[in-house]
Task: structure prediction
Amino acid sequence: MMQVKEIMTPKPITIEPQKAVYEALLLMYQHDIRRLPVIEDGRLVGIISDRDIKQIMGRPILTREETGKEELNFRVSEVMTHDVIMVEQDADLREAIELMAENKISGLPVVDHDEKLVGVVSSIDVLWYALDLLNRVEGK
Result:
């Protein structure tokens, strides 16, 4: 059986809860990712996604008077999902896929037995794995 750790992306880009949402958005853009695990004192305390940020875009965007630059002044901790759905690195890949499908999410933080973040697994990781399986079955 395939374990999550075999297809996950290790050492994911993370952010701290006190950072501005603007910084989270910038990291997502720079690394072409849609979610950031939120880490405090080495522990996974939340996750912020592009969807979370889109939801707050309806709120008034605060401006910094001294620069005139618009920025999202909310803290990551104000916007992130606190009850994180996660999967252990040794879990069967089927479990991760079921969690993503049942919760209609496209990725999961991957943790070790102490719930320390060790990676992320996304629907794209699963699709690449499925494509590899198809290629092997078809002899490509």
Observations:
- The beta strands are 9-10, 35-40, 43-49, 87-88, 107-111, 117-122.
